[in-house]
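Bench notes, afternoon.
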Amino acid sequence: MNRTILSVLFALTAASLLPARIQAQAELRRNAGKSVEYKLPHQEKKYTIATHPLYNFNSGLRFDFEKRIRDTPSWIQAGLAGYLVARRDREDNQWVMITNDELSHLWGTGLELNFKHFVNRKESLYFAGGCSYSHYSIEYYDRYWSSYTEHGLEYRLREYGIVKQGIDKLGINAYFGYQIPSPGFLFDMFVGLGYRHSLRNNSEAKRFDEQMLAFGYTGIVVITGVRFGVKF
């Protein structure tokens, strides 16, 4: 009796395992001749955080956050920048910027969004493109026109003092770069072209558009830089 029960159990177990074995053999036949593709350690990373040290030369600070798009060599990059020049209340003690503009005070912020795609297997060479927006609030010493009304007549006076300018800048970017295929440390260098269009809220104030790095510049710009950060 016991032998009969054991025989039945053995037959049922074998019958249940047979389809899985047949499926496994079929999978092996389908994959025969195909090489297994292994990922390098840095290709397992899903996020990066980095900073742009060259922004410091123009009184700015920028951090980037990147996220891999699913399990692909494509990434979404978001960059947040800030600009600050401490207020100086004397005309002979203004800040001299990298563009030779003299400012009494500056604060600004910027946001940039890019799509980034690696073009080689080890994910070191890439192309990227996107758009940007920045706002700058600037104060400086200069001559300006003031007005007042007396007895129904408007008078304009030429005075000297603090002048304020606000600038909104829109941009598009296209560039390529090289990123060291390291699993933890991020080093990235890139170069490309972009276009900037600036809008000012004070038509009588200085335009700040004489150089490519100027806050109010409109036109084609060269995009280049390096980034340092971490991957995780």
